[in-house]
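hey can u check if this looks right to u? its 143 residues, i copy pasted from the old doc so theres a chance i mangled smth
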Amino acid sequence: MALFKKSGLVDASLPKDDRGSGSFDDYVGVLVPKNAKVTIRLANSTPHQGELADLAAEDPESLTTATPARSIDDERVDAPIEVRLFSGRRVSGVVGTVPRGLESIYDEAVRRLDGRGAKPRIPVAVVQTKRGYRLDLLIGRTK
């Protein structure tokens, strides 16, 4: 079940501390981040703690998303975006999902990077919290 909140849809089937976060208030125009500090915290990272722990030991500057924008077919069925990371040496397994309702922000950032000839990879930060590792998409750096 999903609930609608200011930040988008909230997947009520996930624990409250693993639903991710982000807000449309952080964007202007066609989903362009207001500043370089805008982030989106991935949802559903709890099942991927082993993978995130391994990635936390990597060089943080080498971590970027390895997940392309959704295809038209995925958008049509409103499929969640499962995020994998590129660490410079390998592509990880799934480390979480873009929070429900914020998929268009992710898609637009990847397309914006690709459109300017840059690699379509969003920088990320692995963050350790009281409840384990979480992944923040550093979406503001795609501006």
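The CA atoms of residues 7 and 23 lie 4 Å apart.
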